[in-house]
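FW: tagging you since you asked about this chain on Friday. Here's the raw sequence from the shared folder, copied in full. Didn't touch anything.
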Amino acid sequence: MPYPLKETYRPGQSINAVPARDLSTIAKILNDLKAVGLKLTKTSSGLGWKLELMTDGTTIEFAADNLTIQIKDGGVGTSQIANDAVDKDKIAADVAGNGLGQNASGALEVNVDGTTIEIATDQLQVATGGVDSLQIAPLAVTTAKLAANAATSDKTTGASGSVDTGTPGTTLTITNGLVTAIT
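HL: got it, structure written out here
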């Protein structure tokens, strides 16, 4: 944006020497520079001016050559990433950990065996028939977990052992599917 200055100013000229009619224009220039991250400062000799980039020291910095700006290590956090900016094309395959993989199109997917665990539409679920005696921990099925009348005589025919009834001091001894003792 051009600024109409009434005078030509030479390097090192004091701001106090600028005619009053140009001070508001210079102030506007300085504000506009600041708004885009630039500042105008005197050189160390005091004979000239230099235009400097203002950095926040957190997200951007000058590179070692002092001529190049760069994103500072760790300078990009969640707040600097636009919503929906990270998609399957920007996710590396090694991001997927145990049980998670990346398909040919780049999307992340849960690895399932299809026998015990499956994906139905977009839901992870236990597969039909996916839980049998191998997946049930020893002694995990207790009386409280059995439905009323679930342990019927046809399911205990030929069974032998003892059953804790849940009542303190009451145990059933079963021999060949028949209760042979109550203690």
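FW: The chain has a mean pLDDT of 76.
HL: agreed, and The first helix runs from residue 20 to 35.
FW: great, closing this out.
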